[in-house]
């Protein structure tokens, strides 16, 4: 029994994490197919103790499949619509379809019902958006939100396995006095911060910053919410951190906010300054929750909150969120093939 699942982009950092999460959550997998570009075809990968050979993705790869998990990248554009036409429900981690009105953009703790409106493709939001919108939803429901100001401190895993490797290489070279050769990043990432993720667009904001603005409004169904973002690459391996300032409609004290967040699914509050308790990316990696700390009232606003949010970019930021969406597709019975 189970559902026939194809993972596209299986050999990359997100793809590997998707396999691990499918196994950990005991997702009801019937037949499993692992696909990637020709460059990765032939690689062996383990799932539930069984070895699978990665195949090159072709249109025929989707025959007989029911759910497709796309790790992201160009494959989504090339094969996503084709898979959906074949009756496969596509859960796509690329940015390509996220703002398409026909495509639900879903974080299961935030807007699960949107899954039901899918027409074959469901988009996984950008990692930095997912991490922000989980705690944001808790505050939004309790007190309404007028404006959000967010600054991110994004791990190198956001640039995939090569990004992870580059941090190691640059750090070693910097310490050994060797030559640092930037390739995934614009400059040396070791001992540095780079305020440039993706490409620059209108108003000299990057595409990463506009993603946080536009995706959050779509997920919360609130086009009036004022949001501004600054996204920065930092020398951290796997978890993204975000400093979030929120202007609320109704006043919320820090203690009220802490309680609201503690009660929200998918959030873990780590907030005890006297005991030096607050989330840090070195310790949140490998988890699926969004960790929140440094919860304070904004001293400069009548109705404002500050919080520090950290979560694993490869898991809740990508793989786990995608698998949770697949679980909703089954829960709501909205597969395409009956
Ligand atoms: C990054 N959010 O962090 C982008 C894509 N994962 O690089």
Automatic annotation (TrEMBL):
Gene3D superfamilies: Dihydrodipicolinate Reductase, domain 2, NAD(P)-binding Rossmann-like Domain. It catalyses: L-aspartate 4-semialdehyde + phosphate + NADP(+) = 4-phospho-L-aspartate + NADPH + H(+). Keywords: Amino-acid biosynthesis, Diaminopimelate biosynthesis, Lysine biosynthesis, Methionine biosynthesis, NADP, Oxidoreductase, Threonine biosynthesis. Phosphate binds at residue 98. SUPFAM superfamilies: Glyceraldehyde-3-phosphate dehydrogenase-like, C-terminal domain (SSF55347), NAD(P)-binding Rossmann-fold domains (SSF51735). Catalyzes the NADPH-dependent formation of L-aspartate-semialdehyde (L-ASA) by the reductive dephosphorylation of L-aspartyl-4-phosphate. This is Aspartate-semialdehyde dehydrogenase. The lineage of its organism: Bacteria, Bacillati, Bacillota, Clostridia, Eubacteriales.
